[in-house]
Amino acid sequence: MNALDVDLLRKRFPALGGDWTFFDNAGGSQTLGAVADRVRDYLLTTDVQLGATYDVSRRAGERVRAGQRAMATLVNAADPSEIVIGSSTSALLRMLALCLGRTFSSGDEIIVTNCDHEANIGPWVDLQEHGVRIRSWNVNPDTLALETNGLERLLSERTRLVAVTHTSNVLGHVNPIAEWAQLAHDQGALICVDGVAYAPHRRVDVRAWNVDFYALSLYKVYGPHLGVLFGKREHLLSLPRWNHFFIEDDELPYKLQPGNVNYELTWSAGAILDYLTEIGDGDLETAYARMTAHESVLGDRLLRWLQTKSRVRVIGDPEMTDDRVSTISFVVDGVKSSEIPPYADAARIGIRWGDFYARRLIDDLGLSPGDGVVRVSMVHYNTEAEMTRLLETLDPWI
Prior knowledge:
Aspartate Aminotransferase, domain 1, 4-stranded antiparallel sheet, Aspartate Aminotransferase, domain 2, 398 residues, alpha/beta, 7-stranded mixed sheet
């Protein structure tokens, strides 16, 4: 497997030509220049309503459909109609919960975790108002892992849905989604996966994992501010519509997209697929394997350095294993997490502190009084030289 030419790839991201180092990629990656180019071109050449007979409208419609097809390819969906595009993952999961919740009955059960982003907890918890029972699957407080036997204990004949994260945006551990999907299905339940923290680092394959719903955020995968929700076609067809009453139930995904999608951003998203395909010499698996190999080197270096610091505790796996992405959180004894990033700010290095909308996890781990965690999140365009700058900058303070 060939290594990434990181210096060459960085030229595809205009923001990386400045003097800032971005280690806050789990909050939002930098954007491909090709994405911005597509947005501009769409607005200046095909900014019309879809569905008309004249040529510009037809071209605009094909562009939007091409963006949707690209997203289907990105996650390996069987059909573009299984891709629902919206303003954010949070908005899409809220929509899904409200629609799917109308098919549940009082006494039905939903399993949520205490380590997901709130986007994949809160909308399901709110269904308690309609008689749904919520059961919480919590991480082992010693290993900080979601253990499979914990799910097995919670599953019952009343379970209708398991809502789980593929990778915690705090812990960085990659969960065995295919195994958990099988367990849920064996019990007659559906599974909804938040893949936001996974998708920038590893290949998404919804068919291989046999998941029912899978969500991700394109602005964390080098693209525009859009959310993507995959749903198996049979499930989307059976959902109550979210759009106007005269939209037919089989009009997918439009029945779940009131007001339609953002046209220019949907068209621009296709540039993400083009870029990743190029990295992998035509193969997405190869692209992500190369990205993972590079990110693992950076992650391993940071984790090893943190382990030399007696006051530092890594929150999550302290080693860069195959089941870990390069999103690394830590706390420093005697120091609030909010005190650390300003030292990096002064060196024009972007890192972040907080709970990252995983408030329930941070509360359960007793980390809220210390302002949560410090998080350093790397992707494939970060370099060894940038890591050296970060470690030299933080060294006097932790």
